[in-house]
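ok, trying the design again with the full structure, not the truncated one.
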């Protein structure tokens, strides 16, 4: 195992909790009578999804989808495919995609195109974090938690080589680590 990188907190669990509550209020306003299908993008969104839906006190369904894109470490391979697909039909549903982070936008853009082809009644995106400085493909984020700097983030579901997903705060790796 590599030597432990140095982690600094970017958002505390309290700040994340406040952002999740704010997003839930916005989502409730728009979806409470729509019986939406929330689709979490694995693996990174699992913690955000779990906290978000506990704040949504109206009927909804939860699904997960998984795309492979990231190589090991910090760089995306750029080649994306769906490796775990959906069981619920998307056609005619009000779909809200739940992402941990929009970085280059390649994965999210690919997944939104993939879902759009299945003819949902509506398709929107909720992302906990947005790293606009890295964008390669345009992506519209309808519900956003935080805009983040161009640093590699871990914690609250986000990983580096599968580590650090369990941290309750969102942290960044210090330069050189
Ligand atoms: P994309 O570059 O927008 O396609 O991002 C694809 C995926 O890479 C995201 O959904 C995350 O799972 C992962 N990713 C991107 N940036 C980070 C980061 O800073 N930390 C951890 N994972 C990241
Ligand atoms: Mg992700």
């Amino acid at each position: 195992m590599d030597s432990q990188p140095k982690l600094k907190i970017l958002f505390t669990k309290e700040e994340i909790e406040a952002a999740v509550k704010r997003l839930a209020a916005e989502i409730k306003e728009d979806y409470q009578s729509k019986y939406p299908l929330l689709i979490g993008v694995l693996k990174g969104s699992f913690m955000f999804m779990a906290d978000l839906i506990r704040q949504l006190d109206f009927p909804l369904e939860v699904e997960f989808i998984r795309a492979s894109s990231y190589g090991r470490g910090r760089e995306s391979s750029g080649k994306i495919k769906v490796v775990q697909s959906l069981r619920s039909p998307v056609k005619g549903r009000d779909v809200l995609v739940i992402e941990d982070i929009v970085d280059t936008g390649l994965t999210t853009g690919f997944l939104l195109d993939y879902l759009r082809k299945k003819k949902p009644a509506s398709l929107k995106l909720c992302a906990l974090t947005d790293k606009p400085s890295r964008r390669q493909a345009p992506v519209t984020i309808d519900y956003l938690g935080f805009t983040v700097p161009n640093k590699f983030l871990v914690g609250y579901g986000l990983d580096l080589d599968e580590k650090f997903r369990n941290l309750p705060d969102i942290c960044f790796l210090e330069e050189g680590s």
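Keeping the full-length input from now on. The chain has a mean pLDDT of 93.
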